[in-house]
Design brief:
Distance between the termini: 29 Å
Number of strands: 5
Radius of gyration: 17 Å
Number of helices: 7
Structural class: alpha+beta
CATH architecture: 2-Layer Sandwich
CATH topology: Alpha-Beta Plaits
Helix content: 25-40%
Largest sheet: 3 strands, antiparallel
Shape: globular
Strand order of the largest sheet: 1-3-2
Length: 210
Amino acid sequence: MPRPLRPIADGLVYHVINRGNNRQTVFSSEGDFTAFLKAITDLNERLQFDLYGYCIITNHIHLLIRPREGSISRIVQSLLISHTQRFHRFHGSSGHVWQGRFKSPVIQDDDHLLAVLRYIEANPLRAKMVERAGDYPWSSFAFHGEGRADPVLRFRAMTPWQRMRRFDSGAGRRTSTRDRRRRSWPPFAAAARRDCLTVRRRGWTACVGD
C-alpha cells in the first residue's frame, strides 16, 4: 500500500524528527554540526520558512518549522540530502545515512508549540549530555533561555514564545518583560527532562522519544 502524501498547507508548523540509519552517528565532529546549521541558513535563502527552534544531537535532529514556500517535504529532504552528501565526502563513507521517512507531526496551537519547543531544547538534558541546557551548543536554547543571538532562527511574525510573559504554572504576578520571560524559560525547559511527547494517529499513540 503506498504511503499517504504529506500535506502541503500554508501556515502549519511542524515538529520534524529524524534519526541516523540504525541510530548511527550522523554528527561526529564540530564541522558536521556547523555545516548542518549553515545548510539550514543557506536553504532559508532559497525556500522561505520560519524556524522557531532546533536541537541537533549526534544521531538525530529536531526542528520546529513553518514552511513559507513549498512543502515541508521539500525543505527537509533538501537538508537531509545536503548533509548526506557532505557526510560521505568528509568521512569517506557510502550508503544510507538517515533512517527511512522523517516524522513531521503538526503543531496544534500555541500551547502545543511551547511544549514541543521545551521538549526539543531539553533533549541534551534527557540524554544526560549536559547538566544545563545552556551548556549544549547545538540547540536554540541559548536564544530563548539566555538571550544570545542565533542567526539560524528566523521568523517573520511574533512567536508564541515572544507572546508569553513568563513560563510557570500560572501562580504569581505575571509580567511582560523580556528579561523575566528569559529568566523563567530555563527552569520551565529543564522540567521537560522527563517529558515524552506522543504522536496520535488513527487510534494509536507512540512516544516520540529522545
